Structure formats: C-alpha cells, structure tokens
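Entry 14. Two folds queued back to back today. First construct below, sequence then structure tokens.
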Amino acid sequence: MRLYRWAAGYGANGISQEFVSFSLTDGKPFHPWQWFLADTQPQSMLVGMSHPLPPALRDKLFTGKAPDAECPTSDGSGYYQLTLEPKGIKFWETPRGDGCENEFILSPQEAMPYATQWGQTQLKLLE
C-alpha cells in the first residue's frame, strides 16, 4: 500500500510517501526491508524507508561496471526504497531530478541469496 501526501503550498518539498505491506499469512504490517536487514526483527515496523543495498547485491550488480561520466553517483552506493510489485521486488532510488537514479526488479528467486534467513522463508511464500 502506498500512502502519498502532497501538502499544499510547499511545492515538491511538500511531497511525502510511505509504503506498507501486509503479511499474507497473518495480515500484520511489515516492511520488505526486513527481509534483507540482518539487525531487524520480523515483528518490528521501525524500519526506515531508504537503505543502502545489501553489500553482496551491490557487488553483484555494480562491481566491474564501467563508471558513467555523466552519472558518477550511479554506482549503487545510494539509498534505495524497496517495494513489492506484481513482477517482483523493486529496488529504486528516490528521484533527484538528474536522471541518474537506479532501479531494478528482482524475482523472489533472484533476491533469495541476499535475504536474511527470515527473509528467505518469506520469499519462498511468493514463489
């Protein structure tokens, strides 16, 4: 579920959005970052919206990739949002307006190696 708010009179600075997912097994809210962050308890909803990519995932996607002179920050080192999409798990950087943001979708199977043990049990439910 996407919670979107645009406060009148503040322009783009007035935009805020949050994402909440609900467990299909018990109906309780959770955040998909909990599947990838080792220090986050499954019951906790105190998960920030943006995080760096898990190091192994960042290495897999960005190591060995030639630097982009026009987009030096597109090396995977930014902070990513994570949302569940019909085609998989979407990792995306909040748009900054420079056109250099990264985004990609992983299937549950592709995401499995980067998930915590608890996250792997949850990803298996999506297969």
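Second construct, same run, same settings:
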Amino acid sequence: MRLALLTLLTATLSFSQSLSGEALVKALQQGGYVIVMRHTASPRNAPDKATANPDNTKLERQLDEEGRTTATAMGQALKALKIPIGEVLSSPTYRALETVKYAQFAKAQEVPELGDNGQSMSGGTAAQAAWLQKRVTQTPKGTNTVMVTHQPNLTGAFPNQAQGVADGEALIFGPNTALVARVKVDEWQKLGK
C-alpha cells in the first residue's frame, strides 16, 4: 500500500497533462479512471433563510447560477461523449451534492472524508488527504468513478497538481494512479471536437 501511495505521489509531483482532447475522451470511454472534482461555483457565504433553496434547511453554502449551469453542462457533455460514470462519491455538503444533482450523476454516496468539516474554505485534514490519495488508486473497470470534494481537500492531497484548482475543475487519475489530465468544468463540452 505504501508503495502505491509513494508511486502516486512521485507520479503526480512531475505531472504534465498526458491526455487531452480526443485521446482523453477515448480513454475515458474505456473506463478505469477516477475523476476528482471540486464542486462547481458557490458564493463564499451561506445564504440566509430568505435566500436559501427550500431544501437547504441547514443554510449551507449553495451553488450560484454559474455553478448550476456549469454542472448541468458538464453532465450533458459526459453523456454526449459517452463517458461511462459508475460510482459517485461526494462530500456531504449541500453544494457538493447540488453539483452531483445538476450534473445528473447517479445518486452519490456521501463520504465524510470528502467533506469540509464545517469549515468551508479552511477545511481538510491530513487524514482526509491520505484517504483521498489512497482512494484514487482504486480505479474501476469499464466505468469511471467521480468524486466531488473541496479545494482544501484537493490541495491537501495533491499540493503540486491542484494549485489554483477552479470551481468545478477535475483532476483525472489513470489506471496506473498517475494524474493524466486536469479539466476545467467548461472544457468538457469542447473535448473530442
């Protein structure tokens, strides 16, 4: 296990995008990848009761119009590109689950290790980083796994590769646990063209 984590960390330290465009689409169509993404755009402050979505009963941060639009467009692009999505894991936060909902992924399994620990932009622990590093080594066969998490978790687990990760941006890990691509949320529709 330690060897796999060391291999992953070594591979990701020297990341340069090895798949892009049509080659990335063809690879994802075959499955075997883990797509770890930051939730889509969300205001930095939680709404008050008057502006919260009706089902946002805990008054957590929620997606803004851009977040809803880009999550929807990403989900549509993945379907149009015939990229199979199997397991979907998500932070239990409202904005991450909204990303899953608008992308029209299958029902997500809520995973506390992908959460923000109630700390929004300053969440993420060493244990969560270790969990995420280990989890990306578990590549599926014939489908792709999607994980929706937060910027502190991504930069904690992959400090060099996730620097500047934008809302909705994804890091894609291949069957050999190497980071093969970074895809911004609005780039999915342009892939394969």
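Quick look at the second one. The radius of gyration is 16 Å. The first strand starts at residue 34 and ends at 38.
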